[in-house]
Design brief:
The chain is of the alpha/beta class and 643 residues long. The protein is 29% helix and 19% strand. Bound molecules: alpha-methylisocitric acid and iron/sulfur cluster.
Length: 643
């Protein structure tokens, strides 16, 4: 029986377990990446492990999220990360060099390698044939120290691409179509593998758009084969030696097959407030817009920008619209400057932003009240833009650019014939904004520079015998980590300060949560299905930990957040019978006796609702290793105990 590409790469990296779907496997990690919003924590955790130099083939720290410096905090954190990198063997991509996923694809990604990153869109690397997975900062810290990374051995979905995209239909429309069909929960426990004749018609940046936004499916990762197109891309980046051809065997067996004929796709948009709420322009109808933002790790490649410049050429942005453009990397921005495309954008009235995440994470460009904003990004969760009542639509750069001119949501096919857009044979390469670490012999000369914003992270205690605690919060389905621990320009600078950032924990759902949880001392949260979808931010586990949350009981969890809860020593539980969700209210007193004994005996745990006077069962579906981690009080304690 042949193998899928995913199975080939995973089994070549397997260090623990067997390739049995649904069971836990441990894999060796070749590369890691961090960004600044999760990086400070990850490096504090790395320091706490006491490993002098990283043991990966390549570890890179990017500064791209917290680039608005309206106080000392972000600048201090950047300086801290830079000094840790220099000392401990990590490459440091300075602010201005670009968005982590875009730069990593350009300069470091290698087909066939494994990458984990403290950012949920790390699967962008799948565009170049890597197994690239988003993880919590602590998991990345452990991998930098040479530790194994654990995942559930995934099911594999084949997306069979046939045909060729028609003029003005984009890679973004491919992933929006997949989201429409599979939903934001559809990828949980799965890797999405793209195959078929249609693959050849897509460039590496287009493939990367698709694997990037595969994060919104809840998938473990997404991957494309590494082929002649990959070789030419790497060659153009001056890295042909990094190329290896890779694909699935022709008789590989898949768990599910999705057929997509690229020739039949039409331009699509994800409507408020979920990336899977996908409709065609016709279905949405007349929509007057206030703002257009082009950029983010999904759609900020040179190819995207060239298309945008072509559409804007000689025109003016509609008087009622604000258009911002953030090219994804210094390489992209520089090439746009050299070939005149940047001048075209400026001329048309675009507001050019630095190469960073920017508006995608609410770092500026919040829309006006009730504003309608078209964005080429990957997430449109309520409030994420910084304006609570804004309506965000996720679209391709082509649709964004043409709509910026017309002032209404516009199908880019109205532009008529599309010229052929080609990637250059040689990209402009200048890695002068990537600072290499000092040699190991010199590491003692490097001083770690800590600012006053950096506070120690909360360490959880060993799991208590009994949990007797009240319900501090009850929430519904599809709660995102943006609900649990919001981002944005005001809150992001507090990422290194858990006591302070926890004041905003769940503030979008319930402003009283922080005070109530602290007052209760210890508590339990009740959630619906797909709890914790979205970002990899471990702050969504560390802030609840700081506020005394001992367990979270839900209908189901998103993968990265569940791992982050276990890493923090908080017990993730799911209702054995989902109907029990309806029977529990905020402030009910729950009691779980001899939890360690119950966990050792099996996966089902008995919980008593003392307020309402009934018992119900919850499930704790964790590996023995994860259970050990909970007993120890989280990953750091567990790693220390086992050292
Ligand atoms: C996001 O897109 O939500 C982020 C900001 O990139 C996060 C990471 C973070 O919260 O720092 C992610 O996707 O993991
Ligand atoms: Fe940055 Fe947005 Fe990409 Fe997250 S999704 S890494 S915030 S550009």
């Amino acid at each position: 029986m042949g193998l899928t590409l995913t199975e080939k790469i995973l089994s070549a990296h397997l260090v623990e377990g067997e390739m049995v779907k649904g069971t836990e496997i441990g894999i060796k990690i070749d590369q890691t990446l961090t960004q600044d919003a999760t990086g400070t924590m990850a490096y504090l955790e790395f320091e706490a492990m006491g490993v002098p130099r990283v043991k990966t083939e390549k570890s890179v720290a990017y500064i791209d999220h917290n680039t608005l410096q309206s106080g000392f905090e972000n600048a201090d954190d950047h300086r801290f990360i830079g000094s840790v990198c220099k000392k401990h063997g990590i490459y440091f991509s300075r602010p201005g060099n670009g968005i982590c996923h875009q730069v990593h694809l350009e300069r470091f990604g290698k087909p066939g390698k494994t990458l984990i990153g403290s950012d949920s869109h790390t699967p962008t690397g799948g565009g170049i044939g890597m197994i690239a997975i988003g993880a919590g900062g602590m998991d990345v810290a452990v991998a930098m120290g040479g530790g194994t990374y654990y995942i559930t051995c995934p099911k594999i979905v084949k997306v069979n691409l046939t045909g060729k995209l028609r003029s003005w239909v984009a890679a973004k429309d491919v992933i929006l179509e997949v989201l429409k069909r599979l939903s934001v929960k559809g990828g949980v426990g799965k890797v999405i593998e793209y195959c078929g004749e249609g693959v050849k018609t897509l460039s590496v940046p287009e493939r990367a758009t698709i694997t990037n936004m595969g994060a919104e499916l809840g998938a473990t990762t997404s991957i494309f084969p590494s082929d002649e197109t990959t070789r030419l891309f790497l060659k153009a980046q001056g890295r042909e030696e990094d190329y290896t051809p890779l694909s699935a065997d022709s008789d590989a067996v898949y768990d599910e097959i999705v057929e997509i004929n690229l020739s039949e796709l039409v331009p699509l948009a994800a409507c408020p407030h979920s990336p899977d709420n996908v409709k065609s322009v016709e279905e949405i109808g007349n929509l007057k817009i206030d703002q257009v933002c082009i950029g983010s790790c999904t759609n900020s490649s040179l190819l995207d920008m060239l298309k945008v410049a072509h559409i804007l050429k000689g025109k003016t942005v509609h008087p009622d619209v604000s258009l911002s453009i953030a090219p994804g990397s210094k390489q992209v921005l520089n090439m746009l400057a050299e070939n005149g495309a940047l001048a075209i954008m400026i001329d048309a009235g675009a507001r050019i932003l630095e190469s960073a995440c920017g508006p995608c994470i609410g770092m500026g460009q919040s829309p006006n009240s009730k504003g309608i904003s078209l964005r080429t990004f990957n997430r449109n969760f309520e409030g994420r833009s910084g304006t609570k009542d804004a309506q965000i639509y996720l679209v391709s750069p082509e649709m964004a650019a043409v709509s910026a001119l017309t002032g209404v949501l516009t199908d880019p096919r109205t532009l008529g014939d599309m010229p052929e857009f080609k990637l250059p044979e040689v990209f402009e390469i200048n890695d002068n904004m990537i600072v290499p670490p000092v040699d190991e012999e010199k590491m003692d000369t490097v001083e770690i520079l800590r600012g006053p914003n950096i506070k120690p992270f909360p360490i959880s205690k060993q799991l208590a015998d009994d949990i007797d605690a009240g319900v501090s919060l009850k929430v519904g389905d599809n709660i995102t980590t943006d609900h649990i621990m919001p981002a944005g320009a005001k809150i992001l600078p507090l990422r290194s300060n858990i006591p302070k950032i926890s004041e905003y924990c769940f503030a979008v759902c319930d402003e009283q949560f922080h005070d109530r949880a602290l007052e209760m001392g210890k508590s339990i949260i009740i959630g619906g299905s797909n709890y914790g979808q979205g970002s990899s931010r471990e702050h969504a586990a560390l802030a609840p930990l700081y506020l005394g949350v001992k367990a979270v009981i839900t209908k189901s969890f998103a993968r990265i957040h569940m791992a982050n809860l276990v890493n923090a020593g908080i017990v993730p539980m799911t209702f054995a019978d989902e109907k029990d969700y309806d029977l529990i209210d905020k402030m009910d007193e729950l009691s779980i006796k001899d939890i360690v004994g119950q966990l050792k005996a099996g996966d089902i745990i008995k919980v008593t609702n003392k307020t309402k006077g009934f018992d119900f069962d919850v499930r704790v579906t964790l590996s023995e290793r994860q259970k050990e981690m909970l007993y120890a009080g989280g990953l750091l304690n567990y790693t220390k105990n086992n050292a």
